[in-house]
Write a structure and sequence with these properties.
mainly alpha
């Protein structure tokens, strides 16, 4: 059986479009500087976290819709193995959000650093550094940080970005994008009343947003613990060796007088020359409190203590 001319033209158009897309991707990749190119591991981690995040948001909205619609809920909402939202997102390109990608990249970098520290620890016999020793003395703050840290990885130790760790504005966008995708699908595939559908979607999104507490995110919990700690403890590099990356970044930000994103960027740089800023911002030793930082990034080397001249 031979394909008709319309089918052949459609196939040719699809092949031409795919070839053009491959060419555009090859051009972009060819001229990306090596120092800013993401590694294969980073891209894999970011895709894994993005898939998990979208699945979590879709599952939450579906469950909320089923609860609100009751017997009127379409059966498609209960078929979790078939994604409704992700194909719409991919076609619309809404996931190309700079804030979202920045979070994914930071979490991928955190996972890379934790993995490297774990491998380094496996090769030594030093067991003197324990994550349990770095607490601020407030059980509620310590528990909140440990709960937030436990969300960084899934059961297989793969990196994870939970919806509750998103900034409020980003979660707001993601939820309403998801609601729009579900609304379009339900409008095309079901006979659900438009008013009933829209009320249920709006109620589900608003309830989820009302329950979101940006103060419970990992970065916020780490900064609260860092601010509550005594100024002469802990040793920054010991916190880093324990694998508590977010707490390390918060303590570094506090001691160096910079914000958390800048502290994390210093930590995640792989160039040897970029490591000196956070090394000189560390506390001088455990036996005495660190001197206050006398400057601001990007001139951290001036913070090094020098003997006074008489």
């Amino acid at each position: 059986m031979h394909a008709g001319p319309d089918r052949l033209l459609a196939d040719a158009a699809g092949i031409a479009h795919a070839a053009d897309a491959r060419l555009s991707a090859a051009l972009d990749d060819l001229f990306v500087a090596d120092q800013v190119r993401s590694t294969d591991r980073q891209r894999a981690s970011m895709r894994l976290m993005l898939d998990g995040l979208v699945q979590e948001v879709e599952a939450d909205l579906r469950a909320a819709l089923v609860g609100r619609l009751g017997p009127a809920a379409p059966e498609v909402l209960g078929v979790g193995r078939v994604s409704i939202i992700r194909p719409v997102f991919d076609r619309a390109g809404v996931l190309r959000d700079r804030e979202l990608v920045a979070l994914l990249l930071a979490r991928a970098e955190e996972h890379r650093i934790c993995t490297a520290l774990r491998h380094a620890a496996d090769g030594t016999s030093d067991t003197s550094v324990s994550a349990e020793g770095f607490e601020c003395g407030d059980p509620a703050l310590d528990l909140a940080l440990k709960r937030a840290e436990s969300r960084r990885f899934d059961q297989s130790a793969a990196p994870r970005l939970a919806a509750c760790d998103l900034p409020a504005e980003l979660l707001h966008r993601l939820l309403w994008w998801s609601a729009a995708a579900l609304r379009d699908h339900l409008n095309r595939t079901t006979g659900l009343s438009p008013d009933l559908r829209d009320d249920a979607l709006a109620g589900a999104v608003l309830t989820r947003l009302a329950g979101h507490d940006e103060g419970l995110t990992l970065d916020a919990a780490a900064m609260r613990v860092a601010l509550a700690m005594e100024p002469d403890r802990p040793e920054l590099l010991d916190v880093l060796r324990s694998g508590r990356i977010s707490l390390f970044a918060a303590l570094l930000a506090r001691q160096a007088g910079i914000d958390q994103p800048a502290a994390f960027l210093l930590l995640s740089q792989t160039r040897a020359g970029a490591r000196s800023p956070f090394c000189c911002a560390r506390s001088t030793c455990r036996s005495r409190p660190p001197r206050p930082c006398c400057c601001r990034w990007p001139r951290p080397m001036a913070c090094r203590t020098r003997p006074s001249r008489r």
